Amino acid sequence: MDIKQRITIRAVSDRAADLACAEQLADTLGLPLRVAEDDTSGLFLAYHNDRLQLHDNSLPAAAHPLSVDFLAGPSYYRFLSDRRISQPLAKAVGIKQGVRPEVCDVTAGFGEDGFVLACLGCRVVLVERSPIIWALLDNGLRRAAAHPLIGPLVAERISLHLAESTRFLDTAGRSFATIYLDPMYPATRKSALNKQKMRLLRAIVGDDSDSPALLAAAKKADPARIAVKRPLRAPPLSSAPASFSINGKSSRFDVYLPPYL
């Protein structure tokens, strides 16, 4: 995907720290850094008081820009109030009394599931292939790492990598107890596509058409288990049946155990 033709970075803040971050990010991603008056692009990244935000000029002016935030909203609530190991995600990755597997989330996205698993006590390796999503997630984790309550959890249990997941699994040189996949599911008229967050995510990364290949790469990496999150009524990623499935309210987790048959 050629992000250079679609997204720019804007220098919109008067804070020296924000400008320095914008310059560094532009250099890291190889994207143009522009001032607001010179930029007519639809999508752009900008720093505001250390927070990296993705803006969309095609949306109404009242629409909120997109950022990753573990210090407020559902993520922070789950950190404070929901540490149940009985929840479907926890069961799917193999959490149980006294067991906290290391999880490699090869479709990190905005990091919500990985953050939940870290809150439950797992060490989590996040892998994201979109440079834009990676930048937003990296910024969210960096801000969370500075928080007195959440900071130690993020620093000790979460690592983030910008990489193609199949290549990462091939070259990691190590095994993981659990590999977790939550690929983008093709949109339907009744899907979450109308929600701003999902709409922007799909605009950047599209559909994960290579999901079956990623599942095959996960099997080749030979973890103790693979957990795949799917919409509740979606077909499985593999023609081989899952070892078992765990249903939630709107999604399910297909769990594959060796020998993945």
Automatic annotation (TrEMBL):
CDD domains: AdoMet_MTases (cd02440). Its EC number is 2.1.1.242. GO terms for molecular function: rRNA (guanine-N2-)-methyltransferase activity. One of its GO terms (cellular component) is cytoplasm. The keyword Transferase applies. Pfam families: SAM_MT. S-adenosyl-L-methionine binds at E128, R129, D182. InterPro entries: 16SrRNA_methylTrfase_J (IPR007536), SAM-dependent_MTases_sf (IPR029063). Its main location: cytoplasm. Keywords: Cytoplasm, Methyltransferase, rRNA processing, S-adenosyl-L-methionine, Transferase. It is an enzyme of class 2 (transferase). The keyword rRNA processing applies. It is found in: Cytoplasm. It catalyses: guanosine(1516) in 16S rRNA + S-adenosyl-L-methionine = N(2)-methylguanosine(1516) in 16S rRNA + S-adenosyl-L-homocysteine + H(+). Specifically methylates the guanosine in position 1516 of 16S rRNA. Belongs to the methyltransferase superfamily. RsmJ family. PANTHER family: RIBOSOMAL RNA SMALL SUBUNIT METHYLTRANSFERASE J. This is Ribosomal RNA small subunit methyltransferase J. It comes from Desulfofustis glycolicus DSM 9705.
